[in-house]
């Protein structure tokens, strides 16, 4: 017993070690600040930012998407799969206990020695419980468990990445839908105005007041506006169907809330570039992939060392079923084994080199994910700022063309200018009004992309909304 206790103490002391490198987060060179971050920001990165639009319909659509989106459900299933892998990998740290039972009747050849000496035929019954345990002296199983745990965390971050993208896509698609609705209103209003002009010019042409050229010019304007309407209607249908897929529905109609001009503009979230390391799911996922790859190096290096296993069995054996559980039928066995490599022709070294190469690739992928995150954030902040400037200019341009069109009509009606001036003014006004709406939608979408690029605690809040309350 003393020898057994000493052996267990030695095993316990050695089992605290694990070969291979322990993970430490790489040093990252992060910018001190964002170049295009505005002076006025708000601490909104940890809240449900889309409620700042003050559109209950948008809130409902996002909530529905978080509950029913198929990609989110696939990501959740992947998390369950990774959790199962961790459970099965970790189980080998503990003894494995099993049971077995057999019943057999056998007839032996009488021409053999055993057959001549044995009762023939004969029956045996056996019931055994067994246990086996691979002693993880070198940490191979612990490294594999570490890798599986990191893979689980990476899968969880991948799921949060799906949620981040999902919320952003629903918000951006809804904004685009409301922009198309507003553009369609402009196109139909313009079409009605042009239609009235065509009707008046046809009457004037009938009585010889204008030439046929003027009538045809008016008709060309009318058909330009008419051609824009089915194009916008087609885009609305496609956007609605895309939203339905995000919501987990079959294609169909989408409810509307506030108009694009009626939506409130959310505040710019505050944050530093260094905070992206903890905010963005894709960065956290890349880091956990690096942790897993690092642990696999240790698991590969542990193959250089011997594997020690303990086995044991306890049971009963009898020729009569009624005697199977009597004291004299008891039997047991126990033992141990040690297996180690002597010559593998580079097999283990090849596995180590492969694991090290995977770790280097994971490290570069982690660094690349961080650089992409910085670029995404800068691009989103810059796009929001520049689109705001662009919107201001386009609104002034549209207002100028509107006034130009009014003045051209006055001069034309007074006979001071040809209809060509009116035609030019109206031809420029229609696309200018459409462009204002499109740029406003792009500015809203750029702000959505700022929240997407910078991540934050809002992803955790959205994550909570993916399951119904019981």
Q: What count of helical segments does DSSP give?
A: 11
Cα-based radius of gyration, to the nearest Å: 37 Å
Strand content: 5-15%
Q: Mean pLDDT across all residues, rounded?
A: 87
Shape: elongated
Which regions are unreliable across 5 or more consecutive residues at pLDDT < 50? none
Structural class: alpha+beta
**Beta strands, count:** 4
Explain the overall architecture.
- The protein is α+β, with helices and mostly antiparallel strands.
- 62% of the residues lie in helices and 10% in strands.
- The protein is built from eleven helices and four strands.
- Strands 1-2-3-4 form a four-stranded antiparallel β-sheet, with no helix packed on it.
- α6 packs parallel to α10 (419-454).
- The protein is elongated.
- The two termini are 54 Å apart.
Give short descriptive properties of this protein.
62% helix; single chain
Outline the fold blueprint.
Blueprint: H1 2-15, H2 56-68, H3 70-90, E1 96-106, H4 113-117, E2 122-135, H5 140-206, H6 212-247, H7 276-279, H8 281-301, E3 307-318, E4 330-339, H9 347-413, H10 419-454, H11 458-464
Antiparallel strand pairs: 1-2, 2-3, 3-4
Helix pairs in contact: 2-5, 3-5, 5-6, 5-8, 5-10, 5-11, 6-10, 8-9, 9-10
